[in-house]
Write a structure and sequence with these properties.
It comes from Campylobacter ureolyticus. Keywords: Membrane, Transmembrane, Transmembrane helix. This is PDC sensor domain-containing protein. It is built from 8 helices and 7 strands. It is of the alpha+beta class. It has 2 domains: about 150 residues, Beta-Lactamase, CATH 3.30.450; about 140 residues. The strands form 2 sheets. Strands 1, 4, 5, 6 and 7 form a 5-stranded antiparallel sheet that branches. A two-stranded antiparallel ribbon has the order 2-3. It is elongated, with a radius of gyration of 30 Å.
Length: about 300
Amino acid sequence: MIIREIEEFKLTKSKIKAYLSYIFSQNLPNFSEDIDEEKILKSCKDISDELMGYDTFYILDKNGYQISDNLVFSAKGVKNTFKGEDKSTKSYYKKAVKEKRAYLCEPYPGTFDSKLKVTMAVPIYSQNKELLYVVCCDILLEDILKLINPSSVDSVFGKISRLSYFIITMTLFCVAGILFYFGVKSIIVTNFSLNDTSKIFESTILLTLSLAILDLIKAYFEEEILGRHEKNSTNSKTMIKFLSSIIIALAIEALMLVFKFAMTSPKEIIYPICLIVAIAFLVASLGLYIYITKKAIFQK
């Protein structure tokens, strides 16, 4: 679920960066005397023990050239030789040097496989605030998401959660199908006279409720199962469409009751009027909700 992983990374990037920055700052020597490659590599080993995932460490000099092997501590110190490679054009190197602080890049596919990973780059300075090295750590995206959020996409809980949502949405789909069936049946199969329009109103209500449930199913299926998130607007749009369908169904029911009591029992017409007042309150509340939501999005 690559799209879902990227979306989850965007939502938690600040938390991930803060967490990694804390670990790196607590272990790496910085702004101190006698900083050398050996000390940095020892610190990288300590960081790898805390991350507990597939991670690759390497050191760049101040000009962006790799001066160490690629060290995979989680794979029992397996080394890949990339010494001398020019990485001065990499975004994580340029950003870390320019901003003079730790930088976490966006996800990108690995060189030897299609798995997404991110790189954490931390500049190392001398006691005189001169740039000495840039320590880089490549971490698989799925590993860092599990570390920050145990209920992440590929975790056991995440898979159970998606399965639960799938079962619930399929059940709701069956309910919507039943409502649709009876709504169509009341129009086509049932015999009714032109003087009795109650069947038409009832079928319209059933079809409207079926549409509302389908909108709800679509939103949950895309968000929770497929992982498609539309920033800032998906939840509000889903709520607006669902409430609008419910309001329409209630309005049709109120209209049907007004006609019914007007012809059969005028004294009891107060009840559908109360329902109409309640619907008006729902419409006003929905309008306020739309206003507040759009205002919040505009401010962001």
